[in-house]
Amino acid sequence: MKGNVVIVGGGPAGFNAARAVKVFYPECKVTLIEERENTQIPCSIPSVVAGRLPLEKNLYSLKKLRELGVEIETCKAEVLDTRERKLFLENGKTVFYDKLVLATGWRPKVPSVDEGNLEGIYYVSKTTEQVRKISEEVKSAKRILLVGGGLIGIGFAGEIKRALKSKDVFLVEVSKRLASGIFSPSFSEKLEEELTALGVRVLKETTVRFFEGDTRVRRVFLSSGDVLDVDVVIIAIGFRPRVELAQEAGIRLTKSGKIAVDEFLRTSADGVFAAGNCRVYTSVIDGEEVNAMLASISARDGYMAGINLGEPVVKDKGIVPFGITSVGDSYFGFAGYTEEVLKKKGKKFISTEVETRDGYPPALEGANPLKVRLYFDESGKIVGGEVWGRSKYVSGLVDFISRLIYEKLSVEEVISVQSVAFPSVTPSPLAQPVQMAALMAKKSL
């Protein structure tokens, strides 16, 4: 393939799309359009805000792409003309393309409550300027409110209280329990237990009614009747795709407002692909649309789109929703569909839970408790899992379970899957939690 390739967005999807094009189609001219030269790595922003990671050490730079020969336009793409195959940029330039990748990413969801133009109210953002402001505010504040009890809000609350013990940290969640759409009741309870042990005050089944202050926020009034004196508010209620450029160009969107793509990430416009958090994702489990705004999936998308520009050979079979967060020295992770989702979908399922340790023999110093819960549908196919533990082994288990779900393995196949075992770094081969949970499920089916 030869010609001009233009990529809009320099996040994980755009970055990897540019890299893939330069590797597989070196004769192409590649131009990447990104509003900022440096942004923050999203997943570690809570650590930056809490002061555990220097701001300058969390930068995501486009320098590597320049070294590969990618041209960078540091500005906003304002108008896309798919008929003439050109982009009008904020800096006055016009860029023509043969193939285009839209990797425009996400923006934070905004609640319906009026902020009153008060200072001290922030949304989660990966811009360095915004992260710097939040970090400075948190450092000087005494009372900090997190709005949103999902993985993002939990991560911020836990990191801030862990690093800055003298701060009063509040977490407000509208549901009856934390991360209710992700974790089962027992795992949600464990999450809240860990946050409370750190000193975070959790307020559930309540929302923000309004903010009050002079020029900056001083008080927050909740629907429960509680009134909180605060210095800083961080709103973390999720993200929505940035699709304005595509929408105004007439590219088809889904009913949920995401860019529609086919199995090779092609949009409704000829020569235009979409990758990352701006496009629709479907679950490999049942083919239904799912929310999965994750850097790891976006990065995968970038490689797929970059290769498929020349020849459509890498097919998107769907994704497995997954995620992980930490509170204190505990890690919580999930993959696929868990209890709340399966019930909402009206699916029949069985779940099994195993408690073991992440190292062996049990007397070995450093072995930590580990809990795994698996979900199987009525046919015996694995569809979900949850993991809690006190070591980074949790991350590996989430990946492992995610792969089992992606391959659509039956309970018998899960039992037969091999896994590595070594003292001090994995569970005992006689107590491998995934196989043990599958054995229990097999007996129940």
From TrEMBL:
One of its GO terms (molecular function) is oxidoreductase activity. Residues 4-289 form the FAD/NAD(P)-binding domain. It comes from the Bacteria. Its cofactor is FAD. InterPro entries: FAD-bd_OxRdtase, FAD/NAD-bd_sf, FAD/NAD-binding_dom, FAD/NAD-linked_Rdtase_dimer_sf. Keywords: FAD, Flavoprotein. It holds the Pfam family Pyr_redox_2. The keyword Flavoprotein applies. Belongs to the FAD-dependent oxidoreductase family. This is NADH oxidase. It comes from Phorcysia thermohydrogeniphila.
